[in-house]
C-alpha cells in the first residue's frame, strides 16, 4: 500500500499511535529501541530486561583498636639542657666556709655529671697557698679516691712541683674546673663548667692565692671565661679579678706528648718569675 511497517513497542505507552505517512521514495530508518531488541513473528519488538549486575559486598573496615592502631612515633630525643646560672645558688655558695663548701660540692646535683660519679672531688692542698693550680676534672682514680691528681698525671705534677721546692701540702692548693668525673674522661662541656664555677670561685676567695695556674684548656676557659689555645696562651700573663693567671699544659697531655714536658717546665719557671712561692 506504500506505507511503512507499523512497529509496536510493548514497553512504550504510545504503541497504538500510527506514524504519519512518509513521502514516496522515502526510506524509513528503523532504529531499534536497544541494540539487543528482538522482533517476534507478529512484528512486535521485545526488549530484554537489562541484566542486573551482581552487587559486590565489600567488607566493612575493621574498627581501629589499640592493637590495630598505627604505632605512635617515638618522641625526638631531647637536646641536652643548658645550665642557667642561678643567682640565689651562687650567692649561697659565696657565703660558705670550707666545711660548708665541701659539703655543698659533695651533695651537688646541678648538672648531669652527678649521675655517673662515685663521689665529688672538692680539692686538696694548703688552704693558705700562694699558688693555686686548677685542672680539668677528676679521672677514674680521683673519682675512686676523692682527691685530685692521684694517678700518673698526679705523680708527674708532684715531680714538677718538687723541682720548684713545692708540695701539694705546702704552698700549693689543687682543684679542678669540674668536681665530678666526666664519663669516659671526656672533656667537660661548657654548661658543666658553668655549673661548677661558683665552687671554684669560692675556693679562690678562701685561698686568696697570689697566682692561678690553668692546667689545660678547660681550666683556662673556667678561669678566663673565654676559649683559648694553649700554644698561643703560653708565656703570657692573664688576670682574673686582679690575680695573675698562667696557662700551661695538663699533666695528662704531657704523658701522651712527653716532648712538650720542657715547655711545661718553662711555663712554671715563667710563673715563678711572676709570683715566687713563699
TrEMBL record:
GO biological process, one term: DNA repair
Domain of life: Bacteria
CDD domains xrefs: UDG-F4_TTUDGA_SPO1dp_like (cd10030)
EC numbers, comma separated: 3.2.2.27
Gene Ontology molecular function terms on file: 4 iron, 4 sulfur cluster binding; metal ion binding; uracil DNA N-glycosylase activity
Stretches assigned to the Uracil-DNA glycosylase-like domain: 122-269
Reactions listed under catalytic activity: Hydrolyzes single-stranded DNA or mismatched double-stranded DNA and polynucleotides, releasing free uracil
Start and end residues of each stretch annotated as Disordered: 1-88
NCBIfam families linked: UDG_fam4
Family of this protein: Belongs to the uracil-DNA glycosylase (UDG) superfamily. Type 4 (UDGa) family.
Protein name: Type-4 uracil-DNA glycosylase
Organism: Parazoarcus communis
